[in-house]
Amino acid sequence: MSHIYDTIIIGGGPAGLSAGLYAARSKMDTILIERGKFGGQTATTEELENYPGSIEDCTGPGLIERMKKQAEEFGTKFVKDEVLEVELDGKIKKVVCKKETYEAKTIIIATGAYPRLAGFKNELELRGRGVSYCATCDADFFTELDVAVLGGGDSAIDEAIYLTKFAENVTIIHRRDGFRAAKTSLEKAQNNPKIKFILDTVVEEAKGEEILEGLVLKNVKSGEISELKVDGCFVFVGYLPISDLFKGKIKMNDRGDIITDEDMRCDVPGVFAAGDIREKSLRQVITASADGAIAATTAEKYIEEHF
Ligand code: NAP
C-alpha cells in the first residue's frame, strides 16, 4: 500500500510554505509539491517594504529562502514535480504528478496566480525580446536603457521604482488617471526623477521585428495615437489564478479564484485553499502566509475529526 500523508500542499509560495511550517509543527506528515521555483511571485519581488518587521534587508527571495528552511527544519518534505491531475472526492485524496502519485488525508491548494497579458498586438511575439513580466528577472538587461511599465496597481508602481536602479528612464503607462497602488509607493514613484507617467493611455502595439523597438500608444480620452521609443516593456496588469486543475471539482468564481470559508475550507471535505488562489480582497505576502497557517490548522482539526 502506498504511503498516505496527512496533507499534500500544492504550491511553494508564501501560502504553501506557511502551511508547511504550521502543518509540520503540528506533527502532520506533510509533503509540499512545487513544479517550478519556490516562492512564486514573491521570489520575483525584489523589495518587500510592507511585510511587518522587514524594515531593512527584506528581499522576496531572501524571505522565501528563510520560510522554506523553517518549514523544512520542522519536517515538511519538499518535492519538485508537476501536478497533472487531482482526485479530491473520497476520504483519501490523490495527486497525480509527472514523476509520482501521492495520497493524503487532506490537500491544501496554494498554487497562486500568473501574470495577465495586456493584450496588445505583438505582445507574445516580443515576449522575452523586450516584453517582460518580471523586473527581478530581466531588469539587468535594460541597464541605462529606456523602459515602459504598464499598469497602475502595486506591482506596476513597485517594480517601476525598482527598475530605476537599472534603466535610464521608466515610463509608467496606465489606462486611467486613478491608481490602485498604495499611496506611499505612488508618491515615491511620482517623486522619482527617472519616472514619467503617461495616463489615460493604453498600448495598442509593440513595434520591432527581432527585438522591441517601441510602443504604439492610444489616448483613451482623445483617441490620439502616438509612438514611444523604448527598449523594454514590463507588463504588470494583474494576475489570474492558477486553478485549471481544479475546475469542475471545487467551487470557484468566474475568474477561477477558489472560494473558501474563513477557515480556508473549500466546498469539498478535506480540501483547503490558501493565498492568491482564493477569492479575497487583499493579496499580500502577509495574507497569503496567514491563509497558509489557518489552512494547516483547519486541516489538522479535520483529520482529528475524520480519521
Ligand atoms: P492589480 O492590483 O489587479 O492592478 C492591475 C493594474 O493593471 C490596474 O491598474 C489595472 O487598471 C491595469 N490593467 C488591467 N488590465 C489591463 C489591460 N488589459 N491593459 C492595461 N491595463 C490593465 O494587479 P497587481 O498590481 O499585479 O497586484 C495584484 C495583487 O497583488 C494586488 O492585490 C496587489 O495589492 C498585490 N501586490 C501588492 C504589493 C505590495 O503590497 N507591495 C506588490 C505587488 C502586488 P485599472 O486600475 O483601471 O483596473
Gist of the model:
It is built from 6 helices and 17 strands.
Notes on the protein architecture:
The protein is an alpha/beta fold and 307 residues long. It has two domains: 4-114 and 239-306, FAD/NAD(P)-binding domain (3-Layer(bba) Sandwich), CATH 3.50.50.60; 117-235, FAD/NAD(P)-binding domain (3-Layer(bba) Sandwich). It is built from six helices and 17 strands. The chain has helices spanning 14-25, 60-73, 135-138, 154-163, 183-190, 285-306; strands at 4-10, 30-34, 77-80, 83-87, 93-97, 101-109, 113-115, 131-132, 146-150, 169-173, 195-198, 201-207, 214-219, 225-229, 232-235, 239-241, 271-273. The strands form four sheets. Strands 1, 2, 3, 4, 5, 6 and 17 form a seven-stranded mixed beta sheet that branches. The protein has a five-stranded parallel beta sheet with strand order 8-15-9-10-11, with helices on one face. Helix 1 (14-25) packs parallel to helix 2, helix 1 (14-25) runs parallel beside helix 6 (285-306) and helix 4 runs parallel beside helix 5. The chain is elongated and about 65 Å long. Bound molecules: NADP nicotinamide-adenine-dinucleotide phosphate. Residues 50, 118-119, 150-156, 158, 175-176, 180, 202, 236-239, 283-284 line the site of NADP nicotinamide-adenine-dinucleotide phosphate.
Low-confidence segments, given as residue ranges, are none
User: For the residues shown, what is the average pLDDT?
Assistant: 96
The ordered H/E elements are EHEHEEEEEEHEHEHEEEEEEEH
Approximate strand percentage: 25-35%
Number of H- or I-type helical stretches: 6
Class by SSE composition: alpha/beta
List all distinct small molecules, including ions and cofactors, that are bound in this structure: NADP nicotinamide-adenine-dinucleotide phosphate
CATH homologous superfamily placement of the largest domain: FAD/NAD(P)-binding domain
The proportion of residues forming helix, as a percent range, comes to: 10-25%
The 3D shape can be described as elongated
Based on CA atoms alone, the radius of gyration comes out at: 21 Å
- Report the strand count: 17
Question: Would you identify the CATH architecture of the largest domain?
Answer: 3-Layer(bba) Sandwich
CATH topology of the largest domain: the name is FAD/NAD(P)-binding domain
Q: According to CATH, what is the class of the largest domain?
A: Alpha Beta
Q: What's the story with the biggest beta sheet?
A: 7 strands, mixed
What's the N-to-C terminus distance? Answer: 18 Å
Structural domain count: 2
